[in-house]
Amino acid sequence: MKATLIFDSVNDLVFSKWDEGFLQRMKSFNEQESGNVTDNHNVAQLLSPIITSQRVMAAQFGNTYSSMQCKDNTTIVFDEWLDHVFLIISEQSVDDAHRELMDCKTFVQHICGQNVSLLHSPIYQEWLSVLLESRGKGDSIPGASGVIGESGATSAALNSLKAASKEIKCPPYNHYHFMLFVGDKLLALYSSRGSEDLTPPDLILMSIQCIAAQEYWKDKQEEQPTRLPWLSEENSAIVHTCAGAVGPSAPHSMHLAEIAPRIIFVILVDMELRYIVASFLFNSMV
């Protein structure tokens, strides 16, 4: 039994991902046995008292709680970011559920940046959903064994990326990262001069993006697909690397391409908008 839910500032459910066990649990809470609890509106109504309680405790008493445990072994964990409440309801331990919730929050920051309202879009809802599904699937994707760690393969891949950087230009932007992933493992990374270093969380997030892409391409192999439905026609989108000292986020244009089975070529182009984002956030708070 599991549900991942995100509520906006007026307690509307903007993202939901649940299984049948969760719906059965919700039906047991519904006083009207014939009522329909399979849609966002009814689930939001049933959970509204919990969300409101969490907000009131935080706003009026400065006393937030991050989890609840019920007698039937149901665990509820909370977090709040930019007036949105993130919630996981499951039968996991509090620590495991909280870890998964933090991953969900990081995914939202990664694909939405500071604009969480993008989750109202079905495209972003699907994108977040496939990232959540791909979390933890890395070890199940073959391809890296016998390649990653071999200095010769890594050196050859790095030389290929350097050569590609001379042919692939990203005007008007001067800072970019080229990567090769084998399965879910990073084989080589080449960054242009002056580019900010990618952090370990950034590389993990890119790995999960590659896992999601490979899972989709594998499932649709017979149809010879080229486009990921949650990205643009060129398999590109704006993602946000983890915040550093220079600003709250660093928007990058991400491009994915499968150049051979299980081998993904990734381009991250720094759009140099972090100062604009920081200025907008500052002006919105004053």
Describe the structure.
By secondary structure, the chain is α+β, with helices and mostly antiparallel strands. It folds into two domains: 2-122, Beta-Lactamase (2-Layer Sandwich); 139-275, 2-Layer Sandwich (Beta-Lactamase), CATH 3.30.450. The protein has helices at residues 20-29, 40-61, 94-112, 122-134, 151-167, 200-219, 274-285; strands spanning 2-7, 13-18, 67-69, 75-81, 84-90, 176-182, 185-191, 236-241, 250-260, 263-270. The strands form two sheets. The chain has a five-stranded antiparallel sheet, with helices on both faces. β9 (250-260) and β10 (263-270) form a beta hairpin. α3 packs across α4. The longest helix is centred in the first third of the chain and has 22 residues, at 40-61. This is FUZ/MON1/HPS1 first Longin domain-containing protein. Residues 3-119 form the FUZ/MON1/HPS1 first Longin domain. It comes from Pectinophora gossypiella. InterPro entries: FUZ/MON1/HPS1_longin_1 (IPR043972), HPS1 (IPR026053).
Main attributes?
alpha+beta; single chain; five-stranded antiparallel beta sheet; 7 helices; Beta-Lactamase; elongated; 24% strand; HPS1
Quick overview of this protein structure:
The protein is of the alpha+beta class. 40% of the residues lie in helices and 24% in strands. It is built from 7 helices and 10 strands.
Quote the distance from N terminus to C terminus. 43 Å
CATH fold-level label of the largest domain: Beta-Lactamase
Question: Overall mean pLDDT score?
Answer: 79
Based on CA atoms alone, the radius of gyration comes out at: 21 Å
Low-confidence stretches: 143-147, 275-286
CATH classification, class level of the largest domain:
Alpha Beta
- The strand count comes to 10
Largest sheet, if any?
5 strands, antiparallel
Total helical segments:
7
Reported CATH architecture of the largest domain: 2-Layer Sandwich
SSE run: EEHHEEEHHHEEHEEEH
The strand order across the widest sheet is 2-1-5-4-3
Structural class: alpha+beta
The proportion of residues forming helix, as a percent range, comes to 25-40%
* Strand percentage: 15-25%
Number of domains: 2
- Oligomeric state, counting identical vs distinct chains: single chain
Global geometry:
elongated
